[in-house]
């Protein structure tokens, strides 16, 4: 919490930390969450009550993480082994948790890594249904198969206590120290996060449900946003993730940008201010499309390589009218201006 403590520099401070007996009471209160072979063994409970307060270093959070780790042990032997090697620092605890997640293998590991990638790297917090749709996306599918949407309990449990749902129904990391840890370590533990998120967003926007293009009524757009909860986020941020990703699947991106109707639908969500009770009529009429093509979105997000590829496959977009449209819609955005230049000529893009 440096941003908070920084505001009180020079003032008197009083550090408050739990006593060992406070931690012991906490452990006793959480004992019922451990496997049945613990609750039926007084001597094992005694060991746990003695060990966890000793290694928690006066931190309830670390004690909670220890209890969570013990709750995952399948046998008494595994639990006793874990009990004698509990970490004494939060970073080490987070590292052990990530190692356990990585060691799961198969579908469990894949889902946990997807969830953590979205929670850690998303440009804004994701609501429950947004995250559920995000991790349910399957490549090369024309629509979302809702049978792959995981329950919230599964999402929380598979991430071993690293994520939680707050009072706003938003998925977040369970503690600010976890946020700080992943700010430093996410490229190590989640190296493919940017690529995965970009691909998932573009795949979502390529679904056939968007092939009808933009909605021409307030009601129609609201219903689309309601039933396709990742629609707004994917439209608003896919290009930002693409620009930052170390590796991109250009084939998937080009496929999306080549679908004019899907591009129109994405543009409408990108421009819509969902905080309003009513959106201006131009979000729904012909002005919404205004000749918006994949090239315009590539320029908007400052994707030089992608824009160049679009021009290579679609030379007709060199028409000067299209250039004017790009500047009118996306010129004010800094990334778009860097890409297009002050002359606003798409043709120059090929020469950069």
UniProtKB/TrEMBL annotation:
A Pfam family matched in the record: WHD_GPIID
Would you say which domain of life the source belongs to? Eukaryota
Q: Which PANTHER family match?
A: AMELOGENIN, NACHT DOMAIN-CONTAINING PROTEIN
Q: Where is the GPI inositol-deacylase winged helix domain?
A: 103-182
Name the record gives this protein? GPI inositol-deacylase winged helix domain-containing protein
């Amino acid at each position: 919490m440096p941003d908070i403590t920084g505001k009180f520099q020079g003032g008197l401070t009083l550090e408050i930390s739990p006593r060992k007996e406070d931690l012991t009471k906490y452990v006793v209160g959480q004992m019922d969450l451990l496997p049945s072979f613990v609750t039926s063994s007084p001597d094992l409970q005694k060991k746990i009550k003695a060990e966890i307060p000793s290694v928690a270093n006066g931190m309830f959070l670390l004690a909670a993480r220890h209890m969570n780790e013990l709750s995952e042990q399948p046998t008494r032997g595994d639990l006793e082994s874990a009990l004698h090697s509990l970490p004494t620092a939060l970073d080490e605890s987070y590292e052990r948790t990530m190692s356990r997640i990585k060691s799961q293998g198969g579908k469990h590991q894949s889902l946990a890594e997807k969830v953590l990638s979205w929670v850690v790297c998303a440009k804004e917090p994701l609501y429950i249904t947004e995250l559920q749709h995000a991790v349910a996306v399957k490549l090369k599918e024309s629509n979302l198969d809702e049978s792959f949407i995981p329950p919230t309990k599964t999402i929380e449990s598979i991430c071993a206590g690293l994520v939680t749902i707050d009072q706003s129904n938003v998925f977040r990391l369970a503690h600010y120290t976890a946020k700080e840890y992943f700010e430093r370590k996410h490229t190590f533990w989640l190296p493919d996060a940017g690529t995965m998120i970009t691909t998932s967003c573009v795949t979502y926007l390529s679904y056939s449900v968007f092939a009808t293009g933009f909605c021409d009524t307030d009601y129609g757009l609201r219903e689309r946003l309601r039933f396709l909860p990742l629609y707004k986020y994917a439209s608003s941020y896919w290009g930002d993730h693409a620009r930052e990703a170390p590796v991109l699947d250009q084939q998937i991106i080009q496929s999306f940008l080549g679908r004019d109707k899907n591009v129109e639908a994405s543009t409408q969500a990108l421009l819509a201010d969902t905080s309003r009770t009513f959106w201006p009529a131009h979000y729904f009429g012909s002005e919404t499309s205004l000749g918006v093509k994949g090239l315009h979105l590539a320029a908007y997000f400052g994707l030089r390589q992608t824009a160049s590829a679009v021009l290579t496959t679609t030379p007709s977009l060199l028409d000067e009218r299209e250039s004017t449209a790009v500047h009118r819609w996306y010129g004010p955005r800094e990334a778009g201006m860097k890409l297009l230049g002050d002359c606003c000529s798409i043709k120059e893009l090929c020469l950069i």
